[in-house]
Amino acid sequence: MKLNLFVVAFLFLPLLVLSQSGRQIKVGFGLDGISYVGDLSDPDQRIHRIYPGANLSIQVEGPKRLKLQLNGGFGKFAEQYDGVIPATDPTIRVNTFVETSFYYGDLRLKYRFPISTYFQPFLTAGAGVLVFSPKDENGRFLNGATFTREPGEEYSTAIPQIPVGA
After folding, report:
1. Which candidate, 71, 59, 95, 65, places its Cα nearest to that of 7?
2. CA dihedral sign of residues 72, 78, 84, 86
3. What is the mean predicted confidence (pLDDT) over 38-57?
4. Of 111 and 8, more confident
């Protein structure tokens, strides 16, 4: 329920406010290909699995070349490392599997280079947040499973992100 309220507040309330300003608004939908590369990735594997995701964007028309864009999206991935991950403490049960759903939202500025009507490359940069909920192979949340990591090792389930693109 909290996630649904987040999506409504983050994506649709700004759309409502901006629609009252008289500026043209463009809404976009896209599909993502998501791949995990991290501490549970096999270091010898060059090609990683790709998982599906989706995103929604709302772009406000501004000056001819500069646009404001609000983005939100979601996805899910799973990864298992079959190698040995050594622990410095024998009481630690090192986790070798992770599955997580994630959601993100960000605000970006997009600068277009209108070369022609049909070709308009762009640069984009912004700031946002990524929220995730990692689970182990039994479906238990890992953020509370302190027995799977070194003493004092902490991690959050929400991190800032700086999206850039061309």
Report:
1. 71
2. positive
3. 82
4. 111
Distance CA 97, CA 79 (A): 6
Give the residue among 100, 165, 164, 158 at the shortest CA–CA distance from 129.
Answer: 158
DSSP result, the chain: -HHHHHHIIIIIHHHHHHHTTT--EEEEEEEEEE---STTS-TT-SS---EEEEEEEEEEE-SSSEEEEEEEEEEEEEEE--S----SSTT-----EEEEEEEEEEEEEEEE--SSSS---EEEEEEEEEEE--B-TTS-BSTT-GGGS-TT----SEEEE--EE-
The token duo for 53 is 């995701």
- Read off the pTM: 0.73
Q: Which amino acid is at 23?
A: R
C-alpha Rg value of the chain to the nearest Å: 20
pLDDT for residue 26? 84
Q: 49 is written with which tokens?
A: 């699995």
pLDDT band at 8 (very low <50, low <70, confident <90, very high): low
